[in-house]
Structure formats: C-alpha cells, structure tokens
Design brief:
28% helix, 156 residues, alpha+beta, 2 helices
Amino acid sequence: MLFWKRSEDPWDQKPDKPRREPKEPQVNPLDSLKAWNKERKAKAKEKEEAKRLPPEKCPWCGKDMEQGFLLGGRDGVRWYPGIYKADPLRGLGSTNQIDVLDEGGLWRGLYKTTWLCRDCKKAVFTMPEPLISQDSFSAQVAEYAEETKEEEESGE
C-alpha cells in the first residue's frame, strides 16, 4: 500500500521529547521607560510648582489675583496665564491670552511675571531696581557736561 497512516510508519514517529519548563515572563523594557517618564514628569511638575509664587491680593478690591506673565512679540504685548515656559514646539497659543497694548513692544522672548485681577481688569508687576541711581546719573551727566565744555574751549 502506497499510502498508509502516518502513525503506522516507525520512521515517522518522533521520540518523546522532554517537556520544556515554562519560562518566567520577561521584563518589558518599555515598562522601565514608562516608570522613568512618570518620574520625569513628576519632577517637572514639582519644579513648576516651586516657581509659582504665593497668591497676591488685589490692591483695589482685595480679591486673589491670577499669576501670569507679559510677553512681547511682533503683534504687541500680551498677558498669558501661568508660568512662562519657552517651549518652541508647543508654543504659547493659549485661549486665555489677553492683548495688553499695541504700542511699542518688547523683544521676542522677554517676559515679565505679572498679577492680573480679572474683576478690576488691572495688572500689577514689580519694577526691578534701576541699574543706576538718580544721584549717580546726575553726577555722570554733570561730569560729561564739564568734559565737553573743556573740549570745546580747548578747540579739539
């Protein structure tokens, strides 16, 4: 008989192989990356919270004001809520942005932390110390005037 059952032919039978023990599940490398990413995001959130200043009271109505920042660009100066983050991929396309003024402007990328009272529609920010005091500025102007007067008299 040309065709016979496979199990009847001794050459077709395979010897019994020992069974493999089940392996322990392997650790997925993505799990460690997910854990790392969670830690990274938590640290970033902590840093952002550390930058957040304590709430300020409005000097006009006494209610809490919202922290934000003024940012200048080509189309004027705008107020954005939150803390300034220079993220070129995400941008600053916030729906809460408010146009502050359309005259003058700041160089792109400069910002100033500002408090906004939405009830009074007034913004408050702290002015930095001047680089030079008024007295020393007046002294420098007087000194420059004397120097130019001496140069004119000497004919140089």
